[in-house]
Amino acid sequence: MSFRVEQKLYIKKENLFDFKSFLNKKSAKGIHEPRIIESLYFDNQNFDTYTDSIEGLTPRKKIRVRTYPNHSDERIYFEIKNSSVEGRFKKREVIDNQGFAKVREQGVFDNQYGLCVPKMYVKYEREYLRLENVRISIDTNITYRSYDTNFIAKDDRVIAELKTSIKKNMDELTKDFPLERIRFSKYCYGIEKLFYH
Question: Residue 136: its pLDDT value, please?
Fold first, then answer.
């Protein structure tokens, strides 16, 4: 099991060019072409994965199915993101179209949260870079869509995320980034926009 440290940064749209220039000066390299990501998130009737995330409780999970529309990677990934006191790790497995249809129709039973059913799609464009042993992603054009009603909410923010090993001192890493560090979850923000607006 490989734990990782994650740090999210909020970037104003008007500062995105400057941020990319900053990364370029630091010799950050693109990993591969930008791509669109779409995730379908699952939660139980009480929205407990949302509540645990908002309250920062551990252990907690996020349960989702991720796809890459209009991309050469046509696989469907079932993912569980775990947050524990030791750190964060992700379990991922490939499922087929039949398996995806089954979890959409029947939900997912989780030993912590019970029966979790589809709640919301999150879709965005992601750019990927690497700076030494740190992976940097930049997410733009974020939209949230209710699974049941298709109601859509848009998010005009830009969110950058830094990921590295648990042994890396994230404070050392981020002190050079002239940006606001935030605690942010697309799933939680989307739930608030769609269900509590």
Answer: 92
Which tokens sit at 57?
Answer: 């409780």
Q: Give domain limits for the chain.
A: 4-195
Tens-digit pLDDT profile for residues 148-191: 999 999 998 899 998 887 555 566 656 766 667 777 899 999 99
Give me 119's structure tokens.
């709640």
Angle at the Cα of 97 (from 95 to 102), degrees rounded to 5?
85
Is 127 within 8 Å of 34 (Cβ atoms)?
yes
CB 191 within 8 A of CB 122: no
Write phi, then psi, for 97 (nearest 5 degrees): -60, -35
Q: Domain 4-195: which topology?
A: mRNA Triphosphatase Cet1; Chain A (3.20.100)
Which residue is associated with the tokens 């929205």?
47
Residue 145 CB contacts under 8 Å (≥ 6 apart), including other chains:
120, 121, 122, 123, 151, 152, 153, 194
Distance CA 100, CA 84 (A): 27
